[in-house]
Amino acid sequence: MSAKLFAALAIALTPVLAFARPVPVGPDRAATKAIVQQCEGKDDFSAPAPPARLYGNTFYVGTCTVSVLLVTSPQGHVLVDSATEQAVPSILANIRTLGFRPEDIRWIVSSHEHFDHVGGLAALQKATGAKVALSAPAAAVIATGKVDPADSQAAALKDDDFAPVQADRIVGTGDVVQVGPLRLTMLATPGHTNGSSSWTWQSCAQQRCETISYIDSISALAAGSYRFSDHPDVVARFHRTFAAIAAQQCGILVTPHPSVSALFQRMLGEEPLAPPTACRDYAAMGRNGLNAKLVKETIK
Ligand SMILES: [Zn+2]
């Protein structure tokens, strides 16, 4: 083959070769190892952690103990949760470290209206120019920047105010937040708070797709004189949520506090990443927790 022909062939094949180069798909184990190392012994909500790919176009950009996920596309990104206000600089740095621009985030969605998951929302909205989609009950609380007085943990969270945010869109079960090819579907999962929201989407790379399920906290936590046994409506709401979660095919389960679902251990391959019973097991954990709490209340 002449040198000229070879050069012409190489140029013609370049886009094919670039396309054929394998795109990383599964969890970035080296990056996850860096998270675990940096986070050892750190239980602060705002303790910075480095970022790591979770699967395909979904990345962990949160702190040592509070999840924030970035879901990316060439037409713009979605940020799932905001952690604390103090965590915002590290979240923005993580997004840039991964090679993405915070200004390309089009929507921010959230799990629930507590300061450790939405405290950074106002600052992230400002830094990114993104719109905010919230459930109606969460939007009402987040607009005040104060814990809901009816919240089971209100007595413990009364000093944890956060910068208020007005929702750009109110979402309920089945509603979809869409950016280019990204479609995040909302599932209302009230219980831990009245506005608790879960989100599911498909993360694809190299024609391999996984469902990512960001399922909200379902712990029945009470503070002060609050007793779940005094609130049968809240208990009933919890049970409907457990049933709804148990019915999901989770794929890769992510929880707002990563340790609750051993996220980093699963990303490291120490435990299965997407066991088929993940959502059922998670719902059972919540149900057991609530039942234990109710029993405790009767013997107090
Ligand atoms: Zn909470």
What does this structure look like?
The chain has 300 residues and is an alpha/beta fold. The protein has one domain: Ribonuclease Z/Hydroxyacylglutathione hydrolase-like (Metallo-beta-lactamase, Chain A, 4-Layer Sandwich). 35% of the residues lie in helices and 18% in strands. It has 10 helices and 12 strands. A 7-stranded mixed beta sheet has the order 1-2-3-4-5-6-7. A 5-stranded mixed beta sheet has the order 8-9-10-11-12, with no helix packed on it. α3 links the parallel β4 and β5. It is globular and about 60 Å long. About 2% of the residues have low confidence. The chain binds zinc ion. Zinc ion binds next to loops.
Properties at a glance:
300 residues, alpha/beta, Metallo-beta-lactamase, Chain A, 5-stranded mixed β-sheet, globular, binds zinc ion
| Form type | globular
Low-confidence segments, given as residue ranges, are 14-18
- Report the β-strand fraction as a percent range: 15-25%
Q: Give the number of DSSP strands.
A: 12
Ligand catalogue? zinc ion
> Quick one: biggest sheet?
7 strands, mixed
Q: What is the H level of CATH, i.e. the homologous superfamily?
A: Ribonuclease Z/Hydroxyacylglutathione hydrolase-like
Element pattern in H and E: HHEEEEHEHHEHHEEEEEHEHH
The second-level CATH architecture is 4-Layer Sandwich
Radius of gyration: 21 Å
Q: What percentage of residues falls in helices of 4 or more residues?
A: 25-40%
Structural category: alpha/beta
Number of distinct helices: 10
